[in-house]
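#lab-general

N.A. 3:47 PM
ok so I finally got the sequence cleaned up, no stray characters, all 101 residues accounted for. can someone with queue access submit it? mine expired

B.Y. 3:52 PM
send it over

N.A. 3:53 PM
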Amino acid sequence: MAPRSRTPRADTGDSTSAQGEAAAQLEESIRELLARRAPTSTICPSDAARAVGGDSWRELMEPARQAAQRLVDRGEVVITQKGEVVDLASARGPIRIRRAG
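B.Y. 4:20 PM
back already:
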């Protein structure tokens, strides 16, 4: 997926607004990326971070993980490691995101 043309604003004087916009973009990116794959396929949080942040994707890695957790809380996705569903709070290392159900 090519990076989106709109990237989160780095600093507009209202960092809460910019963070909220980035969070919403990351959640939507996760949904879109998963919708393009088979129901049992997974994505990496970096896929969403790259789609939203372009060349600045690395700074969006933790926000992408947080976005995934919000989607877990809503029952939309699960987080996995080595194919097993895990709790993000206790997960260490690489994670994957899969549609719930």
